[in-house]
Amino acid sequence: MEPTDIKNPEYFHKVIDCQFACPAHTPVPEYIRLIAAKQYNEAYLINWHSNVFPGILGRICDRPCEPMCRRGRVEEKAVAICRLKRVCADNKDNVKPAMPVIPAEKNGKKIALIGGGPASLTVAKDLMPLGYEIHLYDEQQAAGGFMRGQVPSFRLPEKVLNEEVNYILDMGVTTFLNTYVDSMHAILEKGYDAIFVGTGAPKGKDLFLPGREEGEANIHIGINWLAAVQYRHIEKAAETTIVIGGGNTAMDCCRTAKRLGGSSVKVLLRGSKEKMKASPWEVEDAISEDIPILEYRTPVEFVVENGKLTGILCNHSKGGGRENEVPEFIACNEVLLAIGQDNAFPWIEKDIGLEFNQYNLPVLDEVTLQSTLPQVFFGGDAAFGPANVITAVAHGHQAAVSIHAFLEEKDIHQRPAPNTSLAGQKLGFHDWVYHNEVVTEERHHVPHAPKAKSIKNRLLEVELGFDEQTGLKEALRCLNCDVQTVFNFDKCIECDACVDICPTSCINFIENDAENAVRAKLTIPATNKSQALYISDILSTGRIMVKDENVCLHCGLCAERCPTSAWEMQKFLYTTVKAGQK
Question: Do the Cβ atoms of 246 and 294 come closer than 8 Å?
Fold first, then answer.
């Protein structure tokens, strides 16, 4: 195997599993250390520059970081990365003075944002400091996109949403709210220098079964129903409500129906609970609110009698196979359909040079997010279909870089390299700047409002968040994966002291070989090929040092024990470059 090139910024970036998994590449260990030090403003701003909505995401993020958390390899549960994000948001002071200054004199370029969701808002956040004039169009009465229209207030309070949306709008974005854009051609005629489309995936899927038309008044598309609840057009659910679907929208629908007076609310799945697309914690919350989730039910008919919906006829496959199906009638007065979402662009004319693929998605460059109409860019769910808030934010950053380069007549395919640094962490002979003790605390439970109280009020936030003391304890569970073990092979005397002290036996001194052979020869074979091996140059004995990055705890014991300082602990900071930055 060839020696590892640790100067490649992506090498250590990949070792920071949580940051690498985050679509916006938020420096997770860095902000968690700041939370542990009660530097909440600083922790918040690190998040804000990266993921834009710390308070929002600290409540509703899909948490792609947590399944990758190194802590999950030591014990069962990852660090509560998402909920720690909320800790810094809940405990910060006034952060507005630390936000970018917006130039009074504009640069003469105008940009239109179609849709006011997280992707569009991120584009505005990145481009307003560069002097662009930005116009945001949205059909809702306030910006926020699906975060405002479809996420229930018991998960995301309006106060939190307004605060973080307004940080961006207060930069001077010109808003055209309650404005439905019905023609891309008309927008093009306004002479904008660039256009960003962040309209989401606004079309909920329907279920066309016998009885659908007759039961129309009591069968609703889930996302439309949630929006009607949010805007107070609907204030009561039917006494007996069935939700069809197994995603997060289904969980939001059933929990909302419960709060609007549904005394009997059930969820129907075609398959099993184990295969639900909903986040596990959302499923747990629904079950804890006494909402039954019925498995292996395939709806075949909406039963309507005398013009009223009375229930759903299903095929119930008790054993999970069709050969065991039996008909089952489930009574209900209302049905909410949460079986997926589609993109919809009825307002984009077919003759303007903007191409779509067979899935009715725009043909885009996956890196630049530029469409076949050069001045038009897409992001969020509007780009590649339904995803989540953090992916929309990442798209917003990408698109802003592209738009800025496009308007400066530069090659938009030349993407800026990330900013990186390696900084020594030695404070004394056996002391480090960071907290290197591997604590034995298990993941802390986030307290909830009393169920009897919360299910009576759809505006009452269910999760209460960590208090400061619990937040500190949870923060100390972080293994500081960004503090890297840097090996100086020319200082190594091959005494094997580091091998002896390593608690996970991840350091080995062996003969070089092909990768599969090297992985097999380690004291504990390295089976996770998604994480690289750290390979040194050839040492004086002809051996090489091989470290399995997958199981390293970043505890620093190897560096403490080494008599020649061949091992060093160095903090690797990786930040993606935003539009206009160098």
Answer: no
